[in-house]
Prior knowledge:
Layout: E1 3-7, H1 16-29, E2 34-38, H2 44-48, H3 60-64, E3 75-76, E4 82-85, H4 94-100, H5 108-113, E5 122-126, H6 133-141, E6 144-150, H7 155-172, E7 178-187, H8 192-204, E8 209-215, H9 218-226, H10 230-233, H11 238-253
Parallel strand pairs: 1-5, 1-6, 2-4, 2-5, 6-7, 7-8
Antiparallel strand pairs: 3-4
Helix pairs in contact: 1-11
Amino acid sequence: MGKIIAIANQKGGVGKTTTSISLAGALSSLGKKVLLIDFDPQGNASRGVGVDVASLKHSIVDVLLQSTPIEKIIRYTAMKSMSILPSSLQLANMEGHLSNLGEDAFYQLKTVIEPIVKKYDYILIDCPPSLGYLSMTALTTCDSVIIPVQCEYFAMEAVAQVLATINHVQKEMNPSLKIEGFLLTMYDSRTRLGTEVSTEIRGLFKENTFYTQIPRNISLAEASARGIPVSLYRPTSSGAEAYLQLAKEVLDHGHA
Length: 256
């Protein structure tokens, strides 16, 4: 049975999509079969693995509406054992559709991906930068959640909000949901702020914070722009090496 991990934080610009793509690529490079689900209407995870979102005839929207079999929409990427369930701007309209379904909406994604979960070792869900229906649906579907935290001001405020949402989902929809870990991103040891945020997060969530810290690294942005994971684009860069270490930590945590 594949382990389903959501990458979530309602704050934008924290490295959420970069983490989704790069972790998927790193797990794939370690021999794991990975499906990346792009659950963000912006479609950046899809673009980041080489999918031309504008030309897509079908996307995750068709899966949620159950109008097209999921197997027909999943696409291969440049990495042999990594696939993508692409997104589209139409996904933004699904917020309204899901809200009309009431509580059943939160189980929609879980229902439609259930037939293919066993085909993968890991399924990663790139969540949108909000805590609306889409993110709640992802948290209801997953086994655990990775919370990227940018080492900057107001980081703790965002953490408090996402923790409140996780607690709500645990109580109401997904009691087995666990925190896979807090991930410190865009870390720069040369700045006092970076060190302070890192120290604060580790002090508060010691057992739930990944040992790996993701540094600021231009190769990560370049890889996404070229539509391939950094583990293929520049495997010896500090960014690629950091995500490889993160992937090993995730493997150490075991399956669901």
